[in-house]
Design goal:
It is a single chain. The protein has 164 residues and is α+β, with helices and mostly antiparallel strands. The protein folds into two domains: 98 residues, PH-domain like, CATH 2.30.29; 52 residues. The protein contains three helices and eight strands.
Amino acid sequence: MPYSLTSPEPMHWQLRLWPHNALQARGFASVIGVSAAALALPLLAVLGQPVLWGLLPFAGIALWGLWIAIRRNWRDRAILEELDLSQGAVRLRRTEARHAVREWQADPHWVRLHLAPRGGPVEQYLTLTGGTRAVELGAFLTPEERLAVHGELSRILPRLREPA
């Protein structure tokens, strides 16, 4: 699951969420290698002929385009949401792919967790509301993972409202 929930001390939890990254570095090397081999195979037929020099740049551009597209996908998915839950405050820190940081904070007594099975931008739309602002949580997760996160937070949030 692309999330972790830890409790470094009593009545304090840290939830970290990140998007799936199906292609790791080893897979990236394999995809590039297989693609290079697949592009080179038809070029073997024209080896030693002048037409090879006409086809070679297109094969190189195709391989370079694949490389750039995969690397761009990795950069765009470099998102991290960190939710810090304690009796003093609930804090959400979202680090975007371009390193922009957005933060939200609310008193745990006023924080409400809402899961909309349908009707939101995504299935199992998960939001936290505190004060006058609602924030989306885990938009990049699958519906099943958002449901699991909802279960974890539903268990934790009432405990934060108990008197110390």
